[in-house]
């Protein structure tokens, strides 16, 4: 890769933005919140963050934003990721490694089904499949 | 324990942001012989008393999680420094800010791998809050710098995944260039 300048970056952004506006006008309807305390970092929050970015880019998921927070107090289930999305219950996923992050993008964000085996905070027993 | 040096760095920057800093300066310097990094912030700082306890893994101010009696961020840094015959230091003044420094020999067998700096920087820069993070990355006499404010002005919303992807590509290109030069 050639070394980019800030101007190159600005141009790339404008190109992407045009493509994005055509594809998606409805805006952001989902939030992915990744815990980034000492516990999260030690458990691999960076790998999860990276996998989220990569999978969203690959699968064309543009309706979600990524945010970070400190320790959520669930150190034993890190990396911990909260997903909020319109039309879906708020869910906290635990032990989110790279693969799980990719599944959350495909199943939860794209196909609107929960990744049941990684749900930490169960929203309600009747909507989870064992 | 943190798997890479980048994880240690991320932890320190996260501490600074959580300490309410509006300015954070991160320097990461590699030479053939040594690897060193420092994080300087103008956050709330620590009193002498707290500073003395901050490297104890069984100390936490107890404000964030009332029943959790551990705090492992700085202890991980000191443990790593000890394990590789390196040095970690913390200087802090209450109300003024904190400076944390780490350095170690680059060839020590127990030194954790450096890690993926582009991904770490993307994560550090896109943390919530309004603060300036300046990163100076150096290998030998070559360097590049990043500024959070500048990247935000260039890209816009730093929670947008497309923008984050672009930022990572940008930082990757700087890293590659630096490695080639260095």
Describe it for me?
The complex is a heterodimer of chains A (130) and B (182). Chain A is of the alpha+beta class. Chain A is built from four helices and five strands. Chain A has one domain: 3-Layer(aba) Sandwich (Glutaredoxin). Chain A has a five-stranded mixed β-sheet with strand order 2-1-3-4-5. The longest helix of chain A has 18 residues. In chain B, helix 1 packs parallel to helix 4. The radius of gyration of chain B is 16 Å and the shape is globular. Chain B has a single domain, classed as 2-Layer Sandwich (Heat Shock Protein 90). Chain B is an alpha+beta fold and 182 residues long. The two termini of chain B are 29 Å apart. Chain B has a six-stranded mixed β-sheet. Chain A: Keywords: Coiled coil. Chain A: It comes from Tichowtungia aerotolerans. Chain A: This is (2Fe-2S) ferredoxin domain-containing protein.
Protein topology:
The complex is a heterodimer of chains A (130) and B (182).
Chain A (H helix, E strand, L loop, with lengths): L5 H18 L6 E6 L2 H6 L1 H15 L4 E6 L11 E5 L5 E3 L4 H13 L8 E3 L9
Parallel strand pairs in A: 1-2
Antiparallel strand pairs in A: 1-3, 3-4, 4-5
Chain B lengths: L4 H14 L4 E8 L3 E8 L6 H6 L19 H11 L3 E7 L3 E9 L11 H9 L6 E8 L2 E6 H8 L5 H21 L1
Parallel strand pairs in B: 1-5
Antiparallel strand pairs in B: 1-2, 2-4, 3-4, 5-6
Helix pairs in contact in B: 1-3, 1-4, 4-6
Strand proportion of chain A, as a percent range, falls in 15-25%
Q: Per CATH, what is the topology of chain B?
A: Heat Shock Protein 90
Low-pLDDT runs of chain B? none
The number of helices of chain B is 6
Overall radius of gyration of chain A: 16 Å
Rounded to the nearest angstrom, the distance between the terminal CA atoms of chain B is: 29 Å
CATH superfamily of chain A: Glutaredoxin
- What count of structural domains of chain B? 1
- Helix fraction of chain B? 25-40%
| Largest β-sheet summary of chain A | 5 strands, mixed
For the residues shown, what is the average pLDDT of chain A?
88
- Calculate the terminal CA-CA distance of chain A, rounded to whole Å: 45 Å
Task: Determine the most extensive contact between two protein chains.
Answer: A-B, 42 and 48 residues
Structural class of chain A: alpha+beta
């Amino acid at each position: 890769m050639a070394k980019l300048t800030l101007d190159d970056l600005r141009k790339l952004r404008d190109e992407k933005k045009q493509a994005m506006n055509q594809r998606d006008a409805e805006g952001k309807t989902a939030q992915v919140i990744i815990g980034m305390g000492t516990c999260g970092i030690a458990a691999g929050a960076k790998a999860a963050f990276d996998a989220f970015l990569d999978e969203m880019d690959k699968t064309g998921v543009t309706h979600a934003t990524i945010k970070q927070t400190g320790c959520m107090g669930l150190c034993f289930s890190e990396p911990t990721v909260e997903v909020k999305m319109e039309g879906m219950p708020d869910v906290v996923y635990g032990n989110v490694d790279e693969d799980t992050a990719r599944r959350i993008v495909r199943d939860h964000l794209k196909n609107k089904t929960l990744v049941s085996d990684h749900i930490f905070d169960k929203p309600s027993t009747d909507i989870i499949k064992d | 324990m943190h798997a890479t040096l980048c994880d240690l760095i991320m932890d320190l920057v996260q501490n600074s942001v959580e300490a309410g800093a509006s300015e954070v300066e991160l320097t990461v310097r590699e030479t053939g012989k040594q690897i060193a990094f420092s994080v300087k912030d103008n956050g709330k700082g620590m009193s002498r008393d707290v500073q003395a306890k901050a490297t104890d893994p069984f100390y936490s101010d107890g404000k964030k999680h009332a029943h959790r009696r551990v705090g492992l961020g700085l202890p991980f840094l000191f443990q790593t420094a000890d394990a590789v015959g390196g040095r970690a230091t913390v200087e802090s003044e209450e109300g003024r800010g904190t400076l944390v420094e780490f350095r170690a020999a680059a060839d020590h067998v127990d030194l954790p791998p450096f890690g993926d700096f582009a991904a770490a920087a993307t994560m550090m820069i896109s943390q919530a809050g309004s603060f300036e993070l300046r990163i100076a990355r150096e290998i030998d006499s070559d360097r590049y710098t990043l500024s959070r404010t500048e990247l935000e002005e260039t890209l816009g919303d730093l929670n947008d995944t497309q923008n984050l992807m672009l930022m990572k590509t940008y930082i990757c290109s700087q890293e590659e260039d630096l490695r080639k030069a260095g």
